[in-house]
Amino acid sequence: MGKGSGFGKVILFGEHFVVHGVPGIVSAIDSTANAKVTRKNKTIEVKDERRGSKGYAEEKKIQQLESINRMLKKMKLDPETTGLNIWLGGSLPGFSGLGASAASSVAIARAIAGEFTLSFSDQEINDIAYEAEKAYAGNPSGIDNTAATFGGLLWFKKNLAGGSNTIEKLSLRKPVEIIIGSTGIVANTKAMVKGVAERKKANPQKYNPLFKKAEELAINARNAIHQFDLMKVGNLMDVNHSLLQEIGVSCKELDQLVETAKEQGAYGAKLTGGGGGGCMTALTPGEDLQEKVAKAIEKEGFQVLRTKIGIKRI
Ligand code: MEV
Question: Is 12 a pocket residue for ligand 1 (Cβ < 6 Å)?
Fold first, then answer.
């Protein structure tokens, strides 16, 4: 039996903009997707025991099978003849927006490699998971699979010319509490990414300045993280949320979660991931503030994950 795991992630700055070459900042969180793989005859069967949004596993089933086929091809295994029993579990909930698909792809790729005694470097696993991500996101930037593979706090910039992406480790002076609130809505990342690309193409006068702002924002955020200026990081998250609203990827539930988090004293709050449902994240330094914000959101009937960014080793 082969075993593997992949980190969940939270995008702090730049989702959607990263697809078009703008830098983004992502942090792995202390939850993982885990996979176990054993060989069998021909067909591929997936037993998905991850907890999370109702309907997440069913909704993603077709994309998941396509992603496994893509991975097998990239690993030079024949999807027609390779039979697999795949078990998925782990502490990462199947909320849209936390990189659950990328984390599971990394976990499955590592587990398949284990079962077939294939040896892949982390970079190769990252490339395999990127192939798998295409099934879920259409034209992914690669930020999710990069965080799922390497973990940590990362600066990411997609190389639009097709060469290696820029991946740099950032460090926070100490880990900081955040909360993640789930709208409970299973989002279709592929449709969201496509929608942004179409609107950008149709309306460059509106979209190009927003993309320019997103780039400046990422650079300022990197500096604020470096200086451990959490108030500034929070303010920039708020600005990032308004940019995401302007490019049409927020929704009323996400805006409600952001508003509640801010009312309760969060330093900053924004949607995280593909939007259109999925999750919101709020910067809540200190356990007291984290708990206050989490409780208020739970009181409104949403599920919450309490976690930290900038964890050195998970
Ligand atoms: C999804 O977690 C992040 C997006 O920017 C898509 C991507 O970067 O591949 C929406």
Answer: no
19 Cβ closer than 6 Å to some ligand 1 atom? yes
Length of the chain measured in residues: 314
Pocket-testing residue among 9, 10, 16, ligand 1, by greatest number of atoms within 8 A of Cβ: 16
Q: Kindly state whether residue 86 falls inside one of the protein's structural domains.
A: yes
Both 164 and 238 in one domain: the answer is: no
Last residue of a domain, one of 169, 195, 219: 169
* Strand ranges for the chain from DSSP E: 2-13, 24-41, 44-48, 82-89, 153-157, 166-170, 176-182, 268-272, 279-283, 303-309
Q: Is 274 in the pocket of ligand 1 (CB under 6 A)?
A: yes
Counted domains in the chain: 2
- For every one of its 314 residues, what pLDDT tens digit does the chain have, with 9 covering 90 and above? 999 999 999 999 999 999 999 999 999 998 999 999 999 988 999 999 887 656 667 777 888 999 999 999 999 999 889 999 999 999 998 778 899 999 999 999 999 999 999 999 999 999 999 999 999 888 899 999 999 999 999 999 999 999 999 999 999 999 999 999 999 998 888 899 999 999 999 999 999 999 999 999 999 999 999 999 999 999 999 999 999 999 999 999 999 999 999 999 999 999 999 999 999 999 999 999 999 999 999 999 999 999 999 987 54
**158 and 275 together in one domain:** no
Q: Which of 171, 181, 154 is nearest to 93 (CA)?
A: 181
pTM: 0.94
For ligand 1, whether the C-beta of 178 sits within 6 Å is no
Same structural domain, 145 and 203: no
